Amino acid sequence: MRLLIFALAASSAWPQGARFGNYEVTLRLPPEGLTAQEEMQIEYKVADATRIDPVMGAVPVIRAAARSVIEMPSMPSMAKLIEAAHPEGVPGEYGVHPVFPHGGEYRLLLYIRPPGGAEFEASFPLQVGDARRGGKPKPRPYYAEVRSAPKTPKAGDPAELSILVKSRVPGASPVVTAFDIQHEKPMHLIVVRSDLGEFAHEHPDPGPGGEFRIRYVFPSAGDYTLFVDAAPKGAGGQVMPVRMKVSGPRPKRVDIAALPLQRLAVDANLTAEFSADRFPAARTQRLECVVKLQGKAARFEPYLGALGHLILVNEDAETFVHSHPDELDPRAGEDGRIAFLARFPKPGRYRGWVQVQSGGRLYSAPFVVEATAN
Ligand SMILES: [Cu+2]
Questions:
Q1: Average pLDDT, stretch 2-9?
Q2: Whose C-alpha in 158, 219, 292, 326 is 20 to 30 A from the C-alpha of 75?
Q3: How far apart are alpha carbons 309 and 312 in whole angstroms?
Q4: Is the pLDDT of residue 97 over 50?
Q5: What's the mean pLDDT when you consider all of the chain?
Q6: What DSSP assignment string belongs to 190-217?
Q7: Which residues contact 171 (CB under 8 A, 6 or more apart)?
Q8: Burial of 364 by CB count in 10 Å (0-12 exposed, 13-18 middle, 19+ buried)?
Q9: How far is the CA of 268 from the CAs of 250, 272, 273, 352, 364, in angstroms?
Q10: What predicted TM-score, i.e. pTM, was given to this entire model?
Q11: Is the per-residue pLDDT at 15 higher than 80?
């Protein structure tokens, strides 16, 4: 009976393993590839390459203690996905179920402790595709709930917003109460009007029972998307959109499609000039800009643990671009230069807001770029 299982395991299509000391570790990824914002199944097999069985080859290592850390080498400050692996049905096989926040180049680090042995690290590069568009969206493992008092906020009046992050992860508590810190905060709230005519970046206060609270004044009436950006402990960063209606006299609608592309972002006496206004979609891009304050190269003051922040939203007011300052750029901050790494999940127009702090003041300068199909 035992021999049969091993034979089966040997026959299922495992790609060539990689050797780590005495051990061979082989990864099995979904045949259709990895996709962002859906639960993925990653399996791996651990075998002892110093013990070869004539039938099944390297003998599987059972009952190893294993955990995985998934990170993005180009974005060191991104919250890591940390998970204890579970043994699969087949001896020597283990699995994890990550949800990647967005597409891009990741690294999977496996920490494996064979019974009675020392822990070793196995590392694999992972290529993740952007979230699937259209079709019936798969329920995400995490989502946000926002309650407002009054129930429908009124433009110009304060509204008490209460935010919960909820989990659909089997066996986990339905309300998330523990978070990893991203950019110095447990939660970032990006408020955008559906025509991209209003933008705000706020930080609700954490309270008991996982509830976050903020008193917010919507500047104008309309339909809004609230992007709740938080990292449930070990799950990595999650951007959870929530729609909200705001009452009051409707302002003139901004027509983003009719707006000219604009790589010069302006806020009061600050300008940020980007090197381009068109970028290919579905590939990590480097968005460089030169920032000037009153015509002189700006001196950046750290804001939320970085030289600056860049938020981009697609004209559908739902597709959010995750971007981070390029922390590996040795010349970052020199002569007002700052570069961001961003990935446009789909083609179309995007409004962006670059946020920097300089001269004791926070600036949020809007601009318009296009992501092109490849
Ligand atoms: Cu923030």
A1: 43
A2: 292
A3: 10
A4: yes
A5: 88
A6: EEEETTS--EEEE-PEE-GGG-EEEEEE
A7: none
A8: middle
A9: 25, 11, 14, 16, 9
A10: 0.79
A11: no
Check residue 193 and give its pLDDT: 97
- Report the candidate in 367, 339, 160, 338 with the shortest Cα–Cα distance to residue 256: 367
Distance 80 CA to ligand 1 centre (A): 17
Whether 135 is covered by a domain: the verdict is: no
First to last CA, the chain: 52
Residue pair 232/174 in contact (Cβ under 8 Å)? The answer is no
Q: 186 C-alpha vs ligand 1 centroid, how far in Å?
A: 9
Total structural domains within the chain:
3
Residues 218 and 272 occupy one common structural domain:
no
CA 39 distance to own-chain centroid: 14
As beta bridge partners, residue 232 has 179
The band of 14, judged by pLDDT with boundaries at 50, 70 and 90, is low
Q: How far is the CA of 201 from the centre of ligand 1 (A)?
A: 6
Q: Distance, CA 40 to ligand 1 centroid (Å)?
A: 27
Pairing of strands 65-71, 81-84: antiparallel
Question: Looking at residue 16, what is its pLDDT?
Answer: 57
Helix (H), strand (E) at residue 267: strand 264-267
- Considering the domain architecture, whether residues 116 and 175 belong to the same structural domain is answered as no
CA of 323 to the centre of ligand 1 (A): 12
pLDDT of residue 82: 84
pLDDT for 358-370, tens place per residue?
989 999 999 999 9
Residue 107, in any domain of the structure: yes
- The domain in which residue 218 lies consists of 142-246
Q: Quote the ligand 1 centre to 180 CA distance (angstroms).
A: 14
d(CA 15, ligand 1 centre) in Å: 41
pLDDT at 150: 97
CB 122 within 8 A of CB 68: no
- pLDDT, residue 8, reads 43
pLDDT at 329: 83
Domain annotation covers residue 20: yes
Q: How far is the CA of 145 from the centre of ligand 1 (A)?
A: 18
Q: Is residue 158 part of a domain?
A: yes
